[in-house]
Design brief:
Layout: E1 2-4, H1 8-15, H2 20-29, E2 32-36, E3 39-43, H3 47-65, H4 72-82, E4 102-103, E5 110-111, H5 116-127, E6 130-134, H6 141-154, E7 160-165, H7 181-185, H8 190-199, H9 202-210, E8 214-218, E9 230-234, H10 242-249, E10 257-262, H11 276-283, E11 290-294, H12 304-316
Parallel strand pairs: 6-10, 6-11, 7-8, 7-9, 9-10
Antiparallel strand pairs: 1-3, 2-3, 4-5
Helix pairs in contact: 1-3, 2-4, 3-4, 4-5, 5-6, 6-8, 10-11
Length: 317
Amino acid sequence: MAMALDDTGLLAEVCGANDGNLRAAERVLGARVFTRGNEIFLESADEALRNRFRRLVGELVDSVRDGMPSSPELVAAIAASIDPEPYLRGDAEIEGFKDSCVQVPGGFGKIYPRSPAQSLFLKGLSNFDVCFAVGPAGTGKTYLAVAWALREILSKKRRKLVLTRPVVEAGESLGFLPGDLAQKISPYLRPLYDAMESLVPFETIRRLEESHAIEIAPLAYMRGRSLNNAVIILDEAQNTTREQMKMFLTRLGQGSQAIITGDVTQVDLPRKGESGLAHAVKVLKDVEGIFVSRLDARDVVRNPLVRSIIKAYETED
């Protein structure tokens, strides 16, 4: 079967450099995919496979039109959203799958997952009130969490976004930084703001801050609070203690969602075995209503060199 694209520029983007996207499509479909003229062909008589091909190319075309750079990773992610079963990892089983992309109101375009595990993370966010994303640097944990949270706030599904993280740094503490509380904690939350600024105009962030729809707080200031109708993101959660993690998870109020991200290989606590993130993932693995997304080097979407660096360190360990 064939799908025709009249726009040659769009066709080239869909095919990718050296037809890399077509090769990725072949891997996920298990059949030959090629172009002739302005058409993309699937060499198969299997009707179910043809339907998957039709959906795969259609969603890839839509993503390119929405301004998303095409890549073999995006092809794999779209394939995972169409047929997630082969990509499930460990306890990452979800029912009632929803959209596999995030559209932030007033943002710079749709946000698509770039790997199968990222796709599952987004689907977990669609279905669970407590979501953990555990994985190395560059796997998109924070970026996807922030995109999801901004969508929830700007579409008025929830009223507030709370950003927090443990303040654990080598040789430095909040008291040595100038300014009020917000100015002291802001440098630690810079990765979250970098993500927000890449998703929506700066004016939107400023408006949300002025209306207190965005709140930043060090983790120590969360004790005793009950957060209702909010999305709470705990970043760098590997640096929480067990007691801090329990305290944070019990702040969840009515209509709220907690998203916890971290890398258990980069613990800055004096004793790495005390990491609240690693402990929580183990203790809560059988608790209904909690989702754990496990990402690894396959999901790195930064510079490809980052993937090689992570693999090298994993081999040494």
